[in-house]
Structure formats: C-alpha cells, structure tokens
Please model this.
Amino acid sequence: MDKDAKLAENEEGTVLFNTDPIIIKYHYEIDYLHSYAQDSPFFTGLTRRKLLGSRCTSCDRRFATPRGHCMECGAPTEWFELPHEGRVHTFTTCHFGGQAFLKETPFTLIMVEFEGVDTLFLSRLIGARPEEISVGMPVQARFLRNCKFKPTDVYFVPK
Ligand SMILES: [Zn+2]
Model:
C-alpha cells in the first residue's frame, strides 16, 4: 500500500466567469454519429428552403413538429409543406443556453403557430428586441444558406 499516493495534476488553470453560481470554461469536443432516421426528410427539406410538417393519414391532424405517427389516433403520418409565414404563439428570451448557444445570449425563442396546423413549432426569432415582440405577431421563416442539417437551419424574422 502507498499511503502517500496522489492523483497526477497538471498546471492548467480554469477560466472562472462567475462565482455564485460558479461558471467555468473548459474545452469539450466529441464526434457524434447521429441518425435522423424517419425525420430525415425534415432536414433535407431545410436544405431546399422547405419547412415540412406531418399530417395524419387517418384523422388529418397536422403537426408542425413532424412525427412518424399521429399522437391522437396512432395512424402513420405523411409529409406536407408548412407555410413560411406564421404567428408568435408565445416567446421567451434566454439569457443562458447550452454550449452551442452561449455566445448568442440573450436570444429569443418562439413557438410559431401556422394557419390550419394543430401544433406549434419551436424556433429562434431574430430582428426584434424582446419589448417589440408580442403574441400574435406575424413572422416569416428564413433558412441558413449553408445548411448544417440541424433544427437551427430555420429561424424566423418579423414579417
Ligand atoms: Zn390521427
């Protein structure tokens, strides 16, 4: 036995942003292999500036956030194209976010409602200060020119 055993330590420091609560910076990187499986057409649609929802093949319920099967009756769904214009159903301003969004804080998230669609779509809103945003405000979809095959490839601006 070695009663003087110690974990090896390096001389790297930690960047401390805040003390209460403690917020530190450290490098984090991982290669992540992820399949979109049945959701793949949604992301392919974004590369073509199309916003795809899904429609129940039995009861015609329409989902702005696509799903493979209807959450009302369980029947399979089929794809349909959502309009590029909708209205703000609700919104929030985020002053903190995950690693990918930290540099963009504060940012605004909105739930978009589309005419004739039964569920909402979560997205970013840019181009309006929080005090300028209101429930019912018309918004217009925009798409990143260089798609990353992520939900953030689409965002909204005031119409
Ligand atoms: Zn259904």
